[in-house]
Each structure stands twice: as C-alpha cells, then as structure tokens.
TrEMBL record:
This is Fe-S protein. It comes from the Bacteria. The chain crosses the membrane at residues 6-25, 37-58, 64-85, 97-116. Keywords: Membrane, Transmembrane, Transmembrane helix.
Length: 117
C-alpha cells in the first residue's frame, strides 16, 4: 500500500511540475498567457492531492489543517486560471497581477507541502 501512496505522490509532483513549468515557460517566454497545460497540471495535482488526503496506507495522523490550506490555495489558483482564461477569450490581456499570482501561489503550495510538517 505504501508503494501505491508513493506513486500517487509522484503523480502529484508531476501535476505541480506541469502547472509551474507551463507557467514559467509563459513567464519567461514573453507572452504571459494562460494555457490549457496549466489547467491540466492543476487538475492532475488536485486529483492526486485529494487522493493523498485520504487516510489509506499510513500509520500516522494526517495534518488536516495543512491539507485544508493547500486546498484553498489550489482553489484560488483555479479561480485565477479561470479569470485569466476568460479575459483571453474576450481578447483582453491577462492582468499581470493575476498571471504572477498563479506562479507565486503554485510555489507557495509546493513550499507548504515541503516545509509545513
């Protein structure tokens, strides 16, 4: 069961890497647009994170406050991606604050996972 949990952690990390990598490619590539790949990365990380929040195959208590905070940050990132995508579809540019907050919050979520015990 522990191997399966590690596989889900790996998939969760892949989701973060896809989200942050797509964001970084846009941030440092000059266009600063929201892409579908960012949405896919968020979905992968979210589904795998929810699977990890279930108490299966572990012998310790989960930190539900940490899980809740990470879920709220995930929802905010999703909202920002939705706002940016909607603006793009109307032909407007993504507000810089929205775009940069996506990357900052993605890094914050990864930092919370690693630092908060």
């Amino acid at each position: 069961m522990e191997i399966l949990r590690h596989i889900v952690v790996f998939i969760h990390l892949i989701g973060f890497a896809v989200l942050f990598g797509a964001w970084a490619a846009q941030a440092f590539g000059g266009k600063r647009q929201i892409t579908r790949i960012m949405d896919y990365g968020l979905a992968i990380a979210g589904v795998a994170g929810l699977a990890l929040a279930a108490p299966w195959g572990i012998e310790y208590d989960l930190n539900y406050v940490k899980i809740g905070v990470k879920l709220v940050v995930l929802l905010i990132i999703g909202a920002l991606l939705g706002i940016g995508s909607a603006r793009q579809k109307r032909g407007a540019a993504v507000p810089p604050a929205v775009f940069w907050l996506i990357g900052i919050l993605a890094l914050l979520n990864a930092g919370l996972a690693v630092i908060w015990r």
